[in-house]
Amino acid sequence: MLLEQHNVQLVGGDTTKGPLSITWTVMGSSQNKIALRSSAKVDELVFVTGNIGDSFVGLEVLLNHPTEMQEEVKDYFIRKHLHPVPRIDLAQKLRTFISACIDVSDGLYSELSHIAEKSNKHICIDIEKLPTSKNYKKLGYGEEIALSSGEEYELCFTAPKENFQEIQKISKITNINISCIGTVCEGKGVSFKKDEKEIKSLNLKTYEHFSSY
């Protein structure tokens, strides 16, 4: 359905193993502003769209078939994992107001790390501001899962502080939650705080491509 909606054909893939690998790369150009991973600037705000963590729970439901979970809750999480909605239209509305941007496919922490590395900046995240769904909160999953959950396909981006109101207007118009979760600072890497105190004990695991090879 998504392929039809965006007029896209999916043919093959580029994950290969063997003595010979031939890859074709098709590149294009855009006349519009492009939000790169390397575009984050000091004093900008960090945002994420939608809720995070639900995809991880959906995968857990599919693998473990928990009997204590209500069927409608199971269906909610499975749908979130199997049928993510890419924020393509939202990205088009946001593009003139944001700097760096990346989609959350390998976990929010991983994507934040990519922006920090490519922009040569430090990103500080307030974990109390991480957006999670009501179902997620009811099950008691914590911040570590939300930060590590992949296959979310939400947008993580930075933007100048003066664009905050415009971003919130877009959130209301599209009825898609956009949460401000942190700031960009001088330095390197990603850090987390809670109650204005830095947290160093988080156990975060994110997907790394070809890590088993």
What does this structure look like?
- With 213 residues, this protein is of the alpha+beta class.
- Helix content is 32%, strand content 16%.
- The chain has helices spanning 2-5, 54-64, 71-82, 88-94, 108-119, 134-139, 143-148, 164-174, and strands at residues 45-49, 101-103, 122-126, 155-159, 178-185, 189-194, 197-199.
Taking all Cα atoms into account, the compactness measure Rg is 18 Å
The overall pLDDT, averaged over residues, is 89
Task: Sketch the topology as an H/E string, one letter per element.
Answer: HEHHHEHEHHEHEEE
Number of helices: 8
Total count of strands: 7
Biggest sheet strand order reads 2-4-1-5-3-6-7
SS strand fraction:
15-25%
How far is the first residue's CA from the last residue's CA? 34 Å
Low-confidence stretches: none
| Overall spatial form | globular
Task: Tell me the major beta sheet.
Answer: 7 strands, mixed
Structure class: alpha+beta
Determine the fraction of residues in helical runs and give it as a percent range: 25-40%
